[in-house]
Specification:
The chain is of the alpha+beta class. The chain is built from 14 helices and 31 strands. Helices cover 28% and strands 31% of the residues. It is a peripheral membrane protein.
Length: 642
């Protein structure tokens, strides 16, 4: 009965939407005026802005107050964080996806269209912030009046300055008893040279100062620098998949107008498309007839319309020579193998990954295989939290259960005589899987990815933080004074040393007061080796890893001890060895099961006992010579998982 009701609902929803579109096309074709039809707004009345901040500084709560002030939701609505629409966002209490809401607001008897983009605050989702601000002319830089400037605050301020965006510094949570706005204003002046009188103060929870902030957006942020008279051109800042309508895109219009039924084409494909769906996100879809330059709108060209983040949608008359793309490629920090928990679900998992990757443009997906785990995919992520959220979304949104291998970072190698080595093109190769490494004799140099880490910590923890970073092979950079109680420290750190447990350790040694953020610092020469695992002399390819020579003995002991706990005992003794270039750095032994062959004897000559023991010894010797150590699939999962 539940399935029947659900199918009836989807049927009605689909055909109601289709009927609405047919009516819109009829109105446009016959030039019929309609009061419900949206009027095209002037570009001088458009403001595009984002809310950027460190984690848990109140971005989504402030977005709720802005939605209430503009009449999108009723004050005191039961559902908070309206723009956090994913289940994983509500469970974890963080923003994962940047969400757009087009708001109407009347100021001084003029109606303005405000395109608000609520962005994530965690560094693992920084790509959402980067692509969102390409459609903005200003940002609200939100800072917690209690916590003060944090590491991610420095990062988003730098990003806004690089993109020449207008910054509206705003203090949130000023209603808290421990809030100290004057101290935080001093920090903003010290780090960013922001004058205290330009800083606004709000309480997103209670709604204090939100109206003044919204009016400041209108007064301070300029209208978009676009042209309505040119040919239509827009770039895509987000995509997602709809069951009935195919790929839907969120587009920022740079020039011209767009209407339903208009012929367009993609920059990456010369095939002509027809605009079938056009809507504003408020944040729910509101169908419109036409959109103009400066607006952020949802565009759909049907199930076969295509589209991807960073691509450009243009009119068929647009000159090809004028099309250019400023999208920078995403730098993936972590790679992991993704395999289906049940081999019969391989196709289902593949479709789920494809659809989710469309909505999460920061991931890269390539086919992969493993003798132990079967066919799968090698997926690139921006960090471990990004990896966890991606896996959780697969399960929640597509009911696809996945197994993830141990995460690894990408490395670069310089090959000797690359033309003589098959499957390798060029002198420098990016390695995302240790199995891709050629023979060490063919490698001239290894390069390891490094990051520039920013840590803001109370001054009493400077020694502990420095020790932690030096232990992780970090190199210190000049530090800056935030105020009399806090300092900003910077280190050049290997990416492999921070992706697993660095953040947790930092929080532990600083009693939770330090904040950490990092940015790419490129590849640098390093001394790396590939460590292999042998079971009774047989190489197990899935367990190979790339490690730095200074961490070799520690990594070898840790992995062999874990394997000893995970691999089940068998009828023969199993020797587990961690080997680098033929040298054994660690060994553990799993003893064989012992069968008491003399248990049935109850006396008699001792020669009978000796004969049975001799037969057993000969049998075990023969077994060792031909034995094939089989590791159960579940054991690989336990060893390889994070």
């Amino acid at each position: 009965m539940v399935i029947l009701i659900k199918n009836i609902y989807m049927f009605k929803k689909y055909y109601a939407h289709k009927a609405t579109r047919c009516l819109q096309r009829f109105i446009i074709k016959h030039n019929i005026s309609s009061e419900s039809s949206n009027k095209v707004i002037e570009k001088e009345k458009i403001r595009n802005f984002s809310i950027v901040a460190h984690v848990d500084h109140g971005k989504s709560t402030l977005a709720d107050r802005l939605l209430e002030l503009t009449g999108v939701i009723k004050p005191g609505a039961e559902q908070s964080q309206v723009l956090d629409q994913l289940q994983v966002e509500r469970e974890r209490g963080i923003t994962v996806k940047a969400v757009t809401a087009s708001l109407n607001y009347t100021y001084e008897n003029e109606t303005y269209l405000l395109n608000l983009i609520d962005t994530p605050g965690h560094v693992d989702f920084s790509n959402e912030v980067v692509r969102s601000i390409t459609a903005c002319q200003g940002v609200i830089l939100l800072v917690d009046a209690n916590e003060g400037v944090q590491a991610q605050t420095v990062a988003v301020h730098s990003l806004a300055k690089r993109n020449n965006l207008t910054i509206i510094p705003t203090l949130n949570k000023v209603d808290l008893p421990r809030a100290n706005p004057d101290r935080v204003k001093t920090q903003l002046n010290s780090l960013f040279h922001i004058e205290p009188e330009t800083v606004l103060s709000v309480s997103a929870k209670k709604g204090w100062g939100v109206k003044e902030l919204l009016e400041a957006v209108i007064k301070r942020i300029p209208p978009p620098p676009v042209s309505s008279d040119s040919h239509f051109r827009a770039h895509i800042i987000d995509t997602w998949h709809d069951k009935y309508r195919g790929v839907l895109c969120l587009a920022y219009i740079h020039s011209g107008n767009i209407q339903i039924g208009q012929s367009v084409r993609w920059m990456s494909d010369s095939k002509q498309q027809t605009v079938k769906y056009l809507a504003l996100l408020r944040p729910k879809e509101e169908p419109i007839d036409e959109a103009t330059a400066g607006q952020v709108v949802m565009v759909g060209c049907g199930p076969k319309g295509g589209g991807s983040v960073g691509d450009q949608l243009v009119s068929i008359e647009f000159p090809t020579t004028e099309i250019n793309s400023s999208t920078t490629p995403v730098r993936h920090m972590v790679y992991a193998g993704v395999f289906s928990a049940d081999k019969s679900q391989h196709t289902l998992l593949g479709e789920a990954i494809k659809k989710l990757a469309l909505n999460d443009s920061a991931v890269s997906v390539k086919p992969d295989s493993s003798p132990a785990l079967g066919q799968g995919w090698r997926v690139g992520f921006l960090g471990l939290l990004h990896l966890d959220v991606f896996t959780q979304r697969l399960l929640q949104e597509y009911k696809a259960e996945a197994i993830l291998t141990a995460p690894s970072v990408p490395y670069k190698i310089k090959v000797k005589g690359a033309k003589l080595i098959k499957h390798y093109k060029g002198d420098e190769i990016i390695i995302t899987n240790p199995l891709q490494l050629p023979d060490p004799h063919n490698i001239a140099e290894y390069y390891e990815p490094f990051v520039k880490g920013t840590i803001i910590t109370p001054v009493e923890y400077i020694g502990a933080v420095t020790t932690l970073c030096i232990d992780r092979r970090g190199s210190p950079l000049p530090s800056s004074v935030v105020d009399e109680n806090n300092t900003m420290m910077q280190f050049i750190l290997p990416l492999s040393e921070i992706v697993v447990d660095f953040h947790d350790t930092l929080k532990s040694i600083t009693a939770g007061f330090a904040s950490f953020d990092y940015e790419d610092y490129g590849f640098h020469k390093s001394v790396l080796v590939r460590m292999d695992i042998l079971l009774n002399g047989t190489l197990v390819e899935e367990l190979s890893t790339i490690v730095h020579v200074s961490r070799l003995e520690y990594s070898a002991r840790r992995l062999t001890e874990k394997l000893k706990e995970m691999i089940p005992r068998q009828m023969v003794q199993i020797a587990i060895q961690a080997v680098v270039s033929g040298k054994v750095y660690s060994r553990e032994t799993i003893k064989a099961y012992r069968k008491d062959v003399t248990a049935k004897l109850y006396g008699g000559d001792v020669t009978r006992r000796k004969k049975l023991l001799k037969q057993q010894a000969e049998g075990k010797k023969k077994m060792r010579s031909v034995a094939n150590i089989k590791i159960p699939r579940n054991t690989f999962i336990d060893v390889l998982k994070r």
